[in-house]
Amino acid sequence: MKDLKIQPYLIFNGQCEAAIDFYRQALDAEVEMMMRFKECPDPLPDMNMDEIGERIMHASLRVHGNVLMLSDGCGESGKFEGISLSINLKDTEMAKQLFDNLAADGKVNMPLSKTFWSPLFGMVEDRFGVSWMVNIEAEQNAGA
Fewest CB atoms within 10 Å of the CB: 45, 64, 84, 131? Predict the structure, then answer.
């Protein structure tokens, strides 16, 4: 099981391309792959390409060594409820920058501040409704 990877797959219901552009800027993400529905080599018979052809069928972003997958989906709601993506860092300045970037036109649910588990932690909902937690990893006690 050491090869097991869990990768978030976010459905944006028509806003995927805007989300990709946003995350490229906010998180310094790189587009690894992007396919529109009109580029599908084996489209489903009920796909109306006039409606969905330009939408993103699948995209993969590389975010500082991590993979984030995105799509416009096939009719899913695009609501992100009951889940947060957690960014864990050691660099305080990078944490502040990423938090501010994600908060642009979004909503700060908990400003970056010291907690009992972290020297800096905050929660933000970006402009697409995706919830993020930004956390500075506390240094481990050498004697523990």
Answer: 45
Cβ atoms of 82 and 129 closer than 8 Å: no
The domain boundary, picked from 39, 71, 103, lies at 71
CB 139 within 8 A of CB 133: no
Query: Which SS3 state, helix, strand or coil, does residue 132 take?
Result: strand
Q: How far apart are CA 89 and CA 130, in angstroms?
A: 19
pLDDT along the chain (144 residues), means of 10: 86 95 98 93 74 90 96 79 93 96 98 96 97 89 42
Q: Whole domain around residue 30: which residue ranges?
A: 9-71
Q: State if pTM tops 0.70.
A: yes
